[in-house]
Amino acid sequence: MSRQNNTTSTVSFSKVLILLFVILLVLPAVSQDKKKLEKSKRQLEHKIRYTRKLLNETKHKKRASLNEISLLNSQIRTRKQLIVLYNSEIKAADLQIGVLKEDISNLDNDIKRLKKEYGRLIYQSYKARSKTDQWMFVFASRDFYQAYKRIKHLKEINEYRREKVEKIVQKEEEKKKSIADLEALKQNRLELLIAKEAETDALLNDKNIKQQKVKTIIQRERELKNQLAAQRREWQKLNNEIKRIIAAQRKRTDASNPKRIPLTPAEKKLSASFAGNKGKLPWPSVRGQITSRFGKHPHPNLHVTIDNKGVDIRCEKGAVARAVFDGKVVSVIQLPKYKAVLIQHGNYYTVYSNLTDVFVVEGDMVKTKQQLGMIGTDKDSGETILHFELWSATSNTPLNPESWIL
């Protein structure tokens, strides 16, 4: 019987050790992952709200635009990412629920064991009958030393009973807390499921809206191709002007010998600082969504190839363009519809196009995030789009801005 009790005790102790190992190893990781998931979820939810705001600005327009399709595609991708995060949070909640259930089960076993031990103590106390019997037990001692030992023994028994009661109360409190935590987790899991379902419905709705918009886009393919061709011509004019200005900045023409103007020490320092901040530059607008990316790529809905020397950023109406780094305004370029500001940062240049009111003039020294001008809103589409480019003076070619901005 004793061997069986020892075996049972060993098994229980092993379970406790395993549970403690799970709690110490898994829960901190789950907690850390949960914080990361919460941060990512907030960012995605913020992006969805902002994209919805941009889409609402043009919802009264009868005709869909290519940028609107791009925004819807972005919204659909973001919702899918958010649903993945919801699934991860639900899995994390399931893991915590499993650990808490095991914890509650072990607490139940501990409480049963403690109550059983306490029951034996009560039975022993019953056998002692009364305090009179206890005093008789003391008075029946052979000598003072034995009486002292018997009093100490009775005191230890009473103390042991009190400890058992305290442990039972403590375990009961731990169990109540674990049950409360479990209920809170279950409620959180339910809310996550509801939020996931709502996001899934919104995703399906966005997909349906996109399909309808794409149909109207395809019906207007010839018109939109003409618009893209006009945009290409405007971009080409801008790019030619940028190349000319950069070349002029780097050279001075003598009657017989054109030669480069070397960078000043201050310009070299600025250039190195600009390059050192690659991937950390602020956006050229406070907020925005990229609707057309850098480089050559086929249009997702039309049979044309887009060749973008920068990126197009859709902003809210009334948005302002801002400098991504310290530099010098070398030109304010006038285009058919809008203006562009060209800023030099040593060996690098940034271009901010589709501006209406410009707040700077040629020769101005600007600081990071300084406002440059109002971003124009197209009267037909109702869209506010900033065209942003980044050029290397060394090669006189455009670079992908997305790898430079944060």
What can you see in these coordinates?
- By secondary structure, this protein is an alpha+beta fold.
- The chain folds into two domains: 2-218, no CATH class; 220-403, Glucose Permease (Domain IIA).
- It has six helices and 14 strands.
- The chain has helices spanning 2-57, 66-128, 131-139, 144-219, 221-250, 265-276; strands spanning 251-252, 259-260, 289-292, 295-298, 305-308, 311-315, 320-322, 327-334, 339-345, 348-358, 365-366, 371-375, 384-392, 397-399.
- The strands form three sheets. Strands 3, 6, 7, 8, 9, 10, 11, 12, 13 and 14 form a ten-stranded antiparallel β-sheet that branches. A two-stranded antiparallel ribbon has the order 1-2. The chain has a two-stranded antiparallel ribbon with strand order 4-5.
- The longest helix has 76 residues, at 144-219.
In short:
By secondary structure, the chain is of the alpha+beta class.
The number of distinct helices, counting runs of at least 4 residues, comes to 6
How much helix is in the residues?
55-70%
Main β sheet profile: 10 strands, antiparallel
Rg, Å, rounded: 37 Å
How many strands in all? Answer: 14
What is the total domain count?
A: 2
Coarse morphology: elongated
Distance between the termini: 70 Å
Overall pLDDT confidence: 80
Residue stretches low in confidence (pLDDT < 50, at least 5 long) are 1-9, 253-257
Please state the structural category: alpha+beta
H and E order: HHHHHEEHEEEEEEEEEEEE
- Name the beta content range: 15-25%
Features:
406 residues; alpha+beta; Glucose Permease (Domain IIA); 2 domains; 10-stranded antiparallel sheet; 61% helix; disordered N terminus
